[in-house]
Amino acid sequence: MVPNWPRPVDYLPVWQAMQAFTAARTADTPDEIWLVEHNPVFTLGQAGKPEHLLAPGDIPVIKTDRGGQVTYHGPGQVVAYILADLRRSGRFIKDMVFQIEESVIATLREYGIPDAARKAGAPGVYVPWHDGPAKIAALGIKVRNGCTYHGAALNVDMDLRPYDRINPCGYAGLRTVSMASCGVRASWDEVATTLAREIATRCGLQVKCPDHV
User: Fold this and answer.
1) What pLDDT was estimated at residue 212?
2) ω before 8 within 30° of 0 (cis)?
3) What is the set of domains in the chain, with CATH numbers?
4) CA angle 66, 207, 139 (to 5 degrees)
5) pLDDT above 80 for 209
6) Which sequence positions are flagged as catalytic?
């Protein structure tokens, strides 16, 4: 059953719940998509380098087991955690990552951002900005026993200033934007529902997408 997390919720209990869910699942366990909004937190991936944390200040830092470098989660961001059996979906992890990015791109197009795209060698989704590509969604996945957890984070309408305290995803000077800064006015619930639907369809998951969490 998909947990009904409070909004916003701290990062640590959700991460621990994902690990427990993945450790306990069997070949018959249905896939799940958890839609979460976090309290402010910086997370460092397995390859995360502390030097990319420029000035975390009062925002907690958690070293986690997903792929990637450092990112920020906070209110106004939709985080879709994807707990999927890769073997059952018939996909390799590279295929899954590609389809998660495609899901974000399709969601953005539905809300009037037609030029969202991936960037070679830099996982995530980007939009054109006046000084070059700007990141609007981050991606980080962990695979354990053929099953995934962690997922994608899409900036809907949030305070972007904490990104100035890090090198987002390990890239100094990388611009980070939100759907709101691109002129989109949409609720967290609307975007979360759209993104979950796209992920379930494109990633071949047999899940019931909640209306909201």
Assistant:
1) 43
2) yes
3) 11-202 (3.30.930.10)
4) 25
5) no
6) 169
